């Protein structure tokens, strides 16, 4: 009887240990996700501060300087203010579509960050179709904008949603063709493999030099996907008041604001991964051999710093573009996408395919 009781206690303690281990494993799954979300949030705050400082420099005026040192807490103060503002709903609008739209726009962009390799062995999901998963998921964001415009029961909002859908369709096709050219050069659709394929020759191994036409088309298409000037037709204030976000206030308006900067950060990270060598130091004969011998946390940290440095340096281009060029008309926007960028990206893909076949 004593032996039986001891055996039952051992089984119970083992089952408790097993259940605790399962709980620990479940919690550990969410740690990388929460870390990524925290890093993305900090990145968005930095981008907002950078844009305000760069725009102030371009326009020769004083930027934010009171909220924290050098005004770095201004974006946090704006977000806190929007969080406590009242959420208003249109009286005759579709409340469900009106509420779901901003969430779809933000969530679809956040999911795309899962396939970005920030450093050596620092990627949330290294998938064989990672680059096309990003294109597929990011295509959902305009659906949220269209739902927001339709649910607002406002002609300006509905026109803004329709413009967002038309703009997304027009520029996703050239962007996808440019990505396909990169995958042909790298013989893979994995973002990690694309970065490693550029590491052989350092700086001269970047896809920027092998795909200069594709880089220009990708840059133009990504600016249109982010709805940045000169491609911000869905929210043109001279024509549509504020487009699909006209009826929004409080945190829902803030979600659109966050989605815009999330998309800008995502596009810059993909430019770094696809064209600028990712986490590689890009100095082939000086530092790269030593870095290749170093493994573990130090190499991962150096790679993360290099990726973020390239990303935030590249961000100067879309930020300066916003405060430099005038807005296009809607017909000019669609003509640029369908009559120029689409044929150029198709020609670039055919040229890349021909070179790859000849090199076999």
UniProtKB/TrEMBL annotation:
GO terms for biological process: aerobic respiration; photosynthesis, light reaction. Its EC number is 7.1.1.-. The chain crosses the membrane at residues 26-50, 97-123, 129-150, 255-277, 297-319, 340-358. It catalyses: a plastoquinone + NADPH + (n+1) H(+)(in) = a plastoquinol + NADP(+) + n H(+)(out); a plastoquinone + NADH + (n+1) H(+)(in) = a plastoquinol + NAD(+) + n H(+)(out). Keywords: Chloroplast, Membrane, NAD, NADP, Plastid, Plastoquinone, Quinone, Thylakoid, Translocase, Transmembrane, Transmembrane helix. Coiled coil: none annotated. One of its GO terms (cellular component) is plasma membrane. It is found in: Cell membrane; Membrane; Plastid, Chloroplast thylakoid membrane. Pfam families: NADHdh. It is an enzyme of class 7 (translocase). It is a multi-pass membrane protein. One of its GO terms (molecular function) is quinone binding. InterPro entries: NADH_UbQ_OxRdtase_su1/FPO, NADH_UbQ_OxRdtase_su1_CS. NDH shuttles electrons from NAD(P)H:plastoquinone, via FMN and iron-sulfur (Fe-S) centers, to quinones in the photosynthetic chain and possibly in a chloroplast respiratory chain. The immediate electron acceptor for the enzyme in this species is believed to be plastoquinone. Couples the redox reaction to proton translocation, and thus conserves the redox energy in a proton gradient. Belongs to the complex I subunit 1 family. NDH is composed of at least 16 different subunits, 5 of which are encoded in the nucleus. This is NAD(P)H-quinone oxidoreductase subunit 1, chloroplastic. It comes from Hopea reticulata. The gene is ndhA.
């Amino acid at each position: 009887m004593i032996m039986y009781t001891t055996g039952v206690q051992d089984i119970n303690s083992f089952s408790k240990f097993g259940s605790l281990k399962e709980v620990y494993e479940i919690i550990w799954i969410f740690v990388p996700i929460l870390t990524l979300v925290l890093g993305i949030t900090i990145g968005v705050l930095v981008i907002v501060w950078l844009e305000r400082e760069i725009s102030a420099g371009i326009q020769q005026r004083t930027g934010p300087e009171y909220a924290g040192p050098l005004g770095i807490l201004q974006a946090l103060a704006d977000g806190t203010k929007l969080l406590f503002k009242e959420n208003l709903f249109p009286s005759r609008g579709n409340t469900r579509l009106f509420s779901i739209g901003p969430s779809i726009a933000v969530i679809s962009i956040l999911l795309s960050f899962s396939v970005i390799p920030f450093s050596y062995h620092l990627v949330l999901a290294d998938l064989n179709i990672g680059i096309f998963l990003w294109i597929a998921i990011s295509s959902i964001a305009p659906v949220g904008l269209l739902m927001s415009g339709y649910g607002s029961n406002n002609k300006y909002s509905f026109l803004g949603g329709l413009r967002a859908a038309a703009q997304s369709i027009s520029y996703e096709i050239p962007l996808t063709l440019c990505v396909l050219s990169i995958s042909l050069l790298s013989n893979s659709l994995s973002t990690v493999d694309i970065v490693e394929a550029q590491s052989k020759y350092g700086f001269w191994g970047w896809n920027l030099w092998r795909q200069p036409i594709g880089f220009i088309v990708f840059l133009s298409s990504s600016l249109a996907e982010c709805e940045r000037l000169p491609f911000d037709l869905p929210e043109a204030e001279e024509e549509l008041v504020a487009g699909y976000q006209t009826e929004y206030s409080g945190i829902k308006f803030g979600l659109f604001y966050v989605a815009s900067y999330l998309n800008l950060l995502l596009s810059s990270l993909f430019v770094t991964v696809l064209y600028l060598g990712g986490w590689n130091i890009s100095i082939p004969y000086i530092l790269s051999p030593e870095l290749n011998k170093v493994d573990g946390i130090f190499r991962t940290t150096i790679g993360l710093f290099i990726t973020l440095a390239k990303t935030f340096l590249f961000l100067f281009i879309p930020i300066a573009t916003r405060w430099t060029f005038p807005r296009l008309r809607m017909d000019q926007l669609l003509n640029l996408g369908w009559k120029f960028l689409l044929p150029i990206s198709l020609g670039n893909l055919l040229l890349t395919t021909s070179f790859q076949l000849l090199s076999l």
